[in-house]
UniProtKB/TrEMBL annotation:
Annotated ranges, domain Obg: 22-180
Binding site for Mg(2+): 194, 214
Binding site for GTP: 187-194, 212-216, 234-237, 304-307, 332-334
Family: Belongs to the TRAFAC class OBG-HflX-like GTPase superfamily. OBG GTPase family.
One GO-annotated biological process of the protein: ribosome biogenesis
Required co-factors: Mg(2+)
UniProt-listed PROSITE patterns: G_OBG (PS51710), GTP1_OBG (PS00905), OBG (PS51883), OCT (PS51881)
Protein known as: GTPase Obg
Protein source organism: Companilactobacillus crustorum JCM 15951
InterPro entries: G_OBG, GTP-bd, GTP-bd_Obg/CgtA, GTP-bd_prot_GTP1/OBG_C_sf, GTP1-OBG_CS, GTP1_OBG_dom, GTP1_OBG_dom_sf, OBG_GTPase
Matches recorded under CDD domains: Obg
Taxonomic classification: Bacteria, Bacillati, Bacillota, Bacilli, Lactobacillales
Keyword annotations: Cytoplasm, GTP-binding, Hydrolase, Magnesium, Metal-binding, Nucleotide-binding
EC number of the protein: 3.6.5.-
Length: 448
């Protein structure tokens, strides 16, 4: 049975609430496959006034790339719940008369701004898409194979040799959305974050009097009378232990990373059985445990529910425990008291806040040191068949995939390359004799 909850939908540049399937998705895994390169052609000129002819096989075209492109109009990874596999087309094969094959068009996949991309197999961060229209190539298309026009020389003027196109890449990647909002609302459940969001913006989040009311982050746009505006996000589910996986907070703490200013809401209701200062310290601890840099950002402490009898006295006690330079703005969202002043003050704090710099791991700064290639291939005896050997290794397997075995010249060239790699001597050392079979991937040949 499919769960239904209150969800966010985009409407008229604001966020509204409707009942339906859970629409906010911020963590998905997908598979991408780039296109194979086109095969090079084996062809010869047959023209009336070109008596010697000669090779004229063109190169294959490059396979299509898989490219992620940031789109600020998206706010969820929901689309990837229904489509998880993306494929690019292969490049066109080479043609006669030296004509090259067309390269395949890249496949663009739109993702929300704020999406981090990880290699699912290694956990490495591939890239961070934080700007609108920013692109990231996650799977490169294979290079096209060379046609026989490239293999002619003085000893072999009519070569029947061509390369197959390079196979495309297949990768399993994880997309992790971290919402980009100027201001983040944090605090325990039911402190009034959703109420403040509904009053300060046009967002209409679901509001009720029980914990974990908000099951997904809510976004809204604050527009001030002087024309200033900023995006504010309600980040739900924070409770003590959230950074260690308690409650819903661990699912949404990542969104705090993108906010430049924190509005920390603290409940002043004297009847809730909790101490405001302890709550304040507990949330600060969870934020610091997740990312200590968050604690360095500007914070406005917002005591809430000042309309409840006894809340003023409780706030006075709370303020005595805070440092003298704490930035405090008490409000009552129900009565709209102090909300406008808080939004104006938040805008001023935001104007002075430092921009967030995103550190993205790339291979550009990686230092490479030359190391001799010691394990280019391995040889093992086939356990199922006597007098049969299997050769493994990325280099030799790639060589086979690029070799066109439809022509004798191509087979002989492949044999010479195997010998130059030392595979022939290694097979002899492993006990191979003439007549034994050797298998590389799905290709089996007789050893002589």
């Amino acid at each position: 049975m499919m769960e239904t909850v209150f969800v966010l939908k985009f409407r008229n540049d604001n966020y509204s609430l409707e009942r339906g399937i859970l629409m906010f998705v911020d963590n998905v895994k997908i598979t991408v496959r780039s296109g194979k390169g086109g095969d090079g052609a084996v062809a010869f000129r047959h023209e009336k006034y070109v008596p010697l002819g000669g090779p004229s096989g063109g190169d294959g075209g490059r396979g299509g790339d898989i490219i992620l492109k940031a789109n600020e109009g998206m706010n969820t990874l929901m689309d990837f719940r229904y489509k998880r596999i993306f494929k690019a087309e292969p490049g066109q094969n080479g043609q006669i008369k030296g004509m090259y094959g067309h390269k395949a068009d890249p496949v663009y996949i739109k993702v929300p701004t704020g999406t981090s991309v990880y290699d699912e197999d290694t956990g490495r961060l591939i890239g961070d898409l934080v700007e609108n229209n920013q692109e990231l190539v996650v799977a490169k298309g294979g290079d096209g194979g060379r046609g026989n026009i490239h293999f002619a020389n003085s000893k072999n003027q009519a070569p029947e040799v061509a390369e197959n196109g390079e196979p495309g890449q297949e990768k399993h990647i994880k997309l992790e959305l971290k919402l980009i909002a100027d201001v983040g609302l944090v605090g325990f459940p039911s402190v009034g974050k959703s109420t403040l969001l509904s009053v300060a913006t046009s967002a209409k989040p679901k509001i009720a009097a029980y914990h974990f009311t908000t099951l997904s982050p809510n976004l809204g746009m604050v527009r001030l009378d002087d024309g200033r505006d900023f995006v504010i996000a309600d980040l739900p589910g924070l409770i003590e232990g959230a950074s260690n996986g308690v409650g819903l907070g661990i699912q949404f703490l990542r969104h705090v990373e993108r906010t430049r200013v924190i509005l920390h809401l603290v409940d002043m209701d004297p009847n809730n059985g909790r101490d405001p200062y302890d709550d304040y310290l507990a949330i600060r601890k969870e934020l610091g445990n997740y990312d200590e840099n968050v604690l360095k950002r500007p914070e406005v402490i917002v005591p809430t529910k000042l309309d409840i009898p006894g809340s003023e006295e409780r706030m006075a006690e709370f303020k005595e425990k805070l440092s003298a330079d704490a930035d405090i703005f008490p409000i009552s969202s129900i009565q709209h008291t102090g909300v406008k002043a808080l939004m104006n003050h938040t805008s001023e704090v935001l104007s002075k806040a430092e921009p967030i710099h995103f550190d993205v791991q790339t291979d550009e700064n990686k230092e490479y040191n030359f190391e001799p290639e010691t394990n280019a291939f391995t040889i093992e005896k086939d356990p199922e068949y006597e007098h049969s050997f299997i050769v493994h290794g990325d280099k030799v397997e790639r060589l086979l995939q690029r070799t066109n075995l439809d022509h004798q010249d191509g087979i002989m060239r492949f044999a010479r390359q195997l010998k130059s790699m030392g595979i022939e001597d290694a097979l002899i050392d492993a006990g191979a004799e003439s007549g034994d079979s050797v298998t590389i991937l799905d290709f089996t040949f007789e050893f002589i």
